[in-house]
Design a protein that fits this description.
Elements: H1 3-27, H2 29-36, H3 46-70, H4 74-99, H5 105-134
Helix pairs in contact: 1-3, 1-5, 3-4, 3-5, 4-5
Length: 136
């Protein structure tokens, strides 16, 4: 791993963690509480959350940022990041819809849209960081 790759991961990580924290902790907090409150822990298990926020950006860098950089296109980076987000969040939400009693369809659709958007934005930040580091 090079310094450029680490910078791409760091930018992807920071943006994903920041916007997802804002989304989950402020913007959509009540929606998740209303839809899933009966399943939610009283306190989040931060170790598992940290593991997600450390690993997911690795996937975004590998599957979106690096291919986007190879194509010299931040638009491609954003598209690939958004697609990875759609697939990842759809895996979670559609699986829950298929096996969980009372899992809310509307919240799942919103969550999939959010994952698509957030992943595209985070990957674009990683792509911009990679580009910036390459121009130095």
């Amino acid at each position: 791993m090079t310094t450029k790759h680490l910078a791409a991961w760091a930018a992807t990580f920071l943006v994903m963690a920041l916007i997802d924290s804002l989304w989950l902790g402020v913007i959509a907090k009540n929606l998740y509480q209303q839809g899933l409150g009966h399943l939610m822990a009283s306190e989040p298990k931060l170790g598992f959350a940290a593991l997600f926020y450390l690993l997911y950006p690795v996937g975004l860098v590998f599957f979106a940022v690096l291919p986007g950089a190879e194509a010299a296109s931040l638009a491609r980076t954003a598209l690939l990041g958004a697609l990875l987000g759609l697939f990842a969040y759809a895996t979670y939400d559609l699986t829950n819809l298929s096996i969980m009693k009372g899992w809310p369809l509307g919240l799942s659709l919103l969550d999939m849209a959010w994952g698509t958007f957030a992943s595209g934005v985070a990957a674009t930040a990683g792509g911009a960081a990679l580009r910036w580091m390459g121009s130095r």
